[in-house]
Amino acid sequence: MIILFSCFCYKHYCKSMAKRHCYNRDLEQDEAFIPAGESLKDLIDQSQSSGSGSGLPLLVQRTIAKQIQMVRQVGKGRYGEVWMGKWRGEKVAVKVFFTTEEASWFRETEIYQTVLMRHENILGFIAADIKGTGSWTQLYLITDYHENGSLYDFLKCTTLDNRALLKLAYSAACGLCHLHTEIYGTQGKPAIAHRDLKSKNILIKKNGTCCIADLGLAVKFNSDTNEVDVPLNTRVGTKRIVEEYQLPYYDMVPSDPSYEDMREVVCVKRLRPVVSNRWNSDECLRAILKLMSECWAHNPASRLTALRIKKTLAKMVESQDVKI
Length: 324
Description:
The chain is of the alpha+beta class. 39% of the residues lie in helices and 17% in strands.
């Protein structure tokens, strides 16, 4: 019995030492990719200065994903869940996709890693990875974390003055303009269309500006071939649901309208949302209303580009002495 017990203890000791050796080896490998003391900002700044312009190296991304500590769930959508996590003490957002939404995960990862994509008004991409075993799989997309949440949630609990309104509108326009802009060169950036831009897909940063998120439905335009790179995921836009306030066209279409319902109202009947008369009592709001009206002109060729919107809002920001 003593001999058997001794053998058992020795075997257990060997296993624990093997695990510890493996753990220490993993730590050494992780530190080889990401030295101790490096912050996410350091890593991203280094990747930007290296000239690639398409994000962190794959091994660095996988190392970060492996080291993430999930703290709490902060959101849920049709694609999966959003968690607040931590990497070496820094807060990050972790978007965990359902396995059925692999096409959205792949597309969003691809768009975020487009050369020259990084911009202060586009959600900061950190890493993407697939975790799993033979029985389960998780698709991770790791980004900057913004505790103020979405513009949708922010507006429900915040009253804006004109300066705050302009700051939000201008920064969102800057992000959209960057998406739409084609940058020419050997390491150029294609023009990108979001295709699902709404208040729930715009996040609020600590400084009161916006950044555009949720690029799973985005498409790229290739000017050389004059073709649009449409993803396999055929879903476009977001279906409306009943909210506690009255949505535009609430009295003209069902609460969950089809594409044809909206096409009939907007394109065939050429109806536009009704705006309260109180907008006309304020000079800033009148200017915003004029800008909105020019964006929804019946003739598509007459509608303003994102660059034109950005320039118009820039003048308003300057006149109101708004600090961006």
